[in-house]
Amino acid sequence: MNSLLLTYMNNGILVSILVLLLFLFQKILKRYLSNICLYLCCIVLLLAYLIPYRPFAKNSLFTIMTPRVNKVSLELVKLTDLSDSNLYTAYSSEIPSSIDVTKDGSKTLVTATYEAFKLHILIYKQKLSQLFSFLSTSLYNNHFLLYVIWTFGVFITFSYHVIKHYRFCKTIKRFTKPLVDQSKLELLHKNQQQLNVYASITCSVCSSIGSPITLGLLHPVIILPSYSYTAEELDYMLRHELIHIKRKDILMQWLLLICLSFHWWNPIIYLFIRLWKDFCESSCDSIVLNQASPTERMAYSKVLLKTALHQNQIQQLLFINFYGGKKRMKNRLQSILDTKHKKTSILTIMALALILCTTSIFSFAKENTLNKEDPNNIADQVVTSTDLSTVVSKKDITIETSTEDKPTAFSMQDFIEDVKTYEGASYEWGGNTPETGFDTSGFTQYIYSLYGYTLPRTSREQHNSIPSIDRADLKTGDLVFYANEEQEVGHVAIYLGDNQVIHAANPKVGVKISSIDYRPVYSIGRVIP
């Protein structure tokens, strides 16, 4: 469920970039492209919002790397245990022998005053790390709270508009009666035949509306206002509504509501709805006035103005409104009176370009690609260990440990058998524990830490921190590194012998044993002498 949430968020941001571009350059686009073309582009964007899964481009002009947060297991510490006295007691084994620690936690500096002061700072860093670990685990490890908020927003948004639409339909039904004027019904059937609209359509009259509206997904209903209008005016209004029905615009409205529900948190989605409605009505006008004379265009414009005089604006998402609002009316009139020829032949190219732009120009790094090993994309590891040497880097302070802290002797056979027990463990990008799962470098870091060897966090850093050896000198326990096409290290495995390696492969299979040559070997490094 977390993957679904992050996928929709990432996809929503990417498509919103294209929506912003369309909004900013719409005046320029209207000079060269028809309203029909722009409306179909909006449909492509709508589908892009709804369907976040598309082929990822191998190379992108701009790759947006998502922040990487290590998945850690956390043991909560009681607030009563966070006193200086308890912390000093817990870490007394880490303090150099030249520093005495009293029972109440105060320090008596004998020698190495500077190092003791550093140690005091480290203890408070450990306090902060416990707090940040809790926040990291709650928000990033599980995303549970974020997922609950998002799901609640989806439910509320969808329910609000559906209930509002239901109440509107229930209210308007009280003032609606079937159309019985035979001449008007004949005009409706005539337009249906001319436009090849074969759906069963009901036509009614309502005294509480100022312009024609179309309702119903499966059984369309055209509701006409009750004030008087000429046969020519009625013809324009009916053709307009029938084109909406033919194009399945009511279905598009429902998809738009689903899109709004999933992306309620994104302010750009409300801008997109506005663009969609503008181009939907304008494109419908263009179809009605296809090959129309200037006189006919002027007559159609007067029909729009007449509906504006009788209009009581109703804000609804799930029906088609002939009027649409003052600003939209102004844009429609300008478009109607613009008789310049606009291009529609590049529609296919534009639709394809929009899809390609979503994945090729702006793309988030794919979750199981090697680019995710980029050190610039990796957050500092959240420390939960009581080992103070993991809190700060070596350049900050060096605390010598006793021989008991150094790697103890073990047989390589025991090492290999222990490593094999992790076969089948889950894969989790940013993970470095069995509880949370492993990524490729998190797995090797964890395994060697069990035997007293500290490795850097990423495979690239691991490659640079240990000595390289020739393939001819390869032995069990060595690290085998793999690179991408740009010869950048992005994957690491542990050699088991017999030309086999064990590694955190991908989210599908997790930790698995593979042939060492399942892909070209980049280099080999040695951790255990």
From TrEMBL:
GO terms for molecular function: cysteine-type peptidase activity. PROSITE patterns: NLPC_P60. Pfam families: NLPC_P60, Peptidase_M56. Keywords: Hydrolase, Membrane, Protease, Thiol protease, Transmembrane, Transmembrane helix. Residues 409-529 form the NlpC/P60 domain. The keyword tRNA-binding does not apply. It comes from the Bacteria. The keyword Transmembrane helix applies. GO terms for biological process: proteolysis. The chain crosses the membrane at residues 6-25, 32-51, 144-163, 254-273, 345-365. PANTHER family: MUREIN DD-ENDOPEPTIDASE MEPH-RELATED. Belongs to the peptidase C40 family. This is Signal transducer regulating beta-lactamase production, contains metallopeptidase domain.
